[in-house]
Description:
Layout (H helix, E strand, L loop, with lengths): L2 H5 L15 E8 L4 E9 L2 E7 L3 E8 L5 H4 E8 L2 E8 L5 H7 L1 E7 L3 E9 L2 E8 L3 E6 L2 E8 L2 E4 L5 E4 L5 E7 L2 E6 L6 E4 L5 E4 L12 E7 L2 E6 L1
Parallel strand pairs: 2-6, 2-8, 3-7, 3-9, 8-10, 9-11, 10-12, 11-13, 12-14, 13-15, 14-18, 15-19, 16-18, 17-19
Antiparallel strand pairs: 1-4, 4-7, 5-6
Amino acid sequence: MSVDALLGVDDAHAGPARGEYRYESATNYDVDGGKHFDIDCGSIYACAIRGYDGEQLRVRIVSNTVANLARHFKVSVDDRPKRLDVQVRRGTGISETLAKDDVTVIIWVPQRYVTTVECAAKAQEAHVRGLTCDGLELDVRTPRLSLDDVHTHVEVNCNLDMEIDCASIDGRIDVNQLSSTSRITVPKDVPIAVLTHGLRTRTIVGAGVRQDEDSPNIVELNGVASELIIEGR
């Protein structure tokens, strides 16, 4: 399933066209004010987040092989002043292995009510698209991450080797890793500043990267014994 299929829209509000998956379970929740969204997706195949022009939090759990998703996965929402905690819980009727093979969680957050977003997930893929907010923190264990039309300071905390694809960059991206070697791809026509901090860390800037130490668009590596390769696309 492509990222476009995961996060494409079929109406003026949100939601991919129906029919890409055999099974699905949907949860909608009305949001009434500015919130910090704290999202925990658990162990799944893919996690996708999109900002959209609406007033509901929308969580869609989909699969081509796992039926009765509403029975196997529960979405809990804890609504507090200025904070919304969202957790996708896997029940005992389905193994973590099966969930990681073919269960995807797709989340739409109402752009007008997002202040900051924090998301945790163990997944083969993670995607964020169309999100503008004051900060995005991704506590993930994933080898593949894509960012598209994301306008904020992004923090990526992951101790796996990663491929990070930035279709666009507008702000700062901090990659925080321990004992990992990762690669990030950025647009060739956008100037970026490159920073390296931590212990035994190294940043390698490849061809096609337009470096400018005064640019507000920053790629920074933090951590211990890690390497980050930056390439232009």
